[in-house]
Amino acid sequence: EDVTGEVKAQVPRMYLAQHDLISDVPSLSEDIIVPAEIIGNCGKGHIQRTNFWIGPPECFSPMHKDPFHNLFVHMRGKKSVLLCPSLFSHCLDLHPPPQQNTSRLDFAACNGDADALFRAFPQLDEAGTEMETATLSPGDAIYIPKGCFHYFASEGSKATASVNFWWL
């Protein structure tokens, strides 16, 4: 990546996903402050893990749910997020065990276009008004309740970086 944040074509694509970087680089804990006021007001407030997500343009995580509350803090580039309450999991065509927390629907094929999403997957109509979208810029954060399905995709031509906090 050059100084403007543009990814050069000859650089191989790599995606650091759901990585506990603080375990590998303990000095990072001085720069990552756990937002105790927020985390303490939901669930038991016990941090399970702090994850880093660093990726190239055009990377995404499939629609899935996690067994923890999640505070996702975006640091670089832009990311779009789509949330779907677990009440509508039957609309998401989930994988069989052991991946039953992940949808088989190809949300990435719709490039963040909600209209295209509902045309491609009419079974989502039932969840339509309950699904929420947002675009995250550096410094933005989003809370994802335990069990809420979510999909993330990078936007634009810059690499992205985020950190999230999982807790019970």
Descriptive report:
- The chain is mostly beta strands and 168 residues long.
- The chain has a single domain (16-167), classed as Sandwich (Jelly Rolls).
- Helices cover 9% and strands 34% of the residues.
- The protein is built from three helices and nine strands.
- It has helices at residues 21-24, 36-39, 114-120, and strands at residues 16-19, 47-55, 60-64, 69-76, 78-84, 132-136, 141-144, 149-155, 160-167.
- A five-stranded antiparallel sheet has the order 1-2-9-4-7, with no helix packed on it. Strands 3-8-5-6 form a four-stranded antiparallel sheet, with no helix packed on it.
- The longest helix is centred in the last third of the chain and has 7 residues, at 114-120.
- The chain starts with 15 loop residues before the first strand and ends with a strand.
- The model has no long low-confidence stretch (mean pLDDT 87).
List keywords for this structure.
single chain, 5-stranded antiparallel β-sheet, globular, 4-stranded antiparallel β-sheet, Jelly Rolls, 168 residues, mainly beta
Quick synopsis:
This protein is mainly β and 168 residues long. 9% of the residues lie in helices and 34% in strands. The model has no long low-confidence stretch (mean pLDDT 87).
Whole-Å distance between the termini? 37 Å
The total count of helices amounts to 3
- Average of the residue pLDDT scores: 87
| CATH structural class | Mainly Beta
CATH topology: Jelly Rolls
- Broad structural category: mainly beta
The value of Rg in angstroms is: 16 Å
**Rough outline:** globular
Number of strands: 9
- What portion of the residues fall into strands of 2 or more residues? 25-35%
Biggest beta-sheet profile? 5 strands, antiparallel
Regions with pLDDT < 50 over 5+ consecutive residues?
none
Spatial strand order of the main sheet: 1-2-9-4-7
Q: Element order, helices and strands?
A: EHHEEEEHEEEE
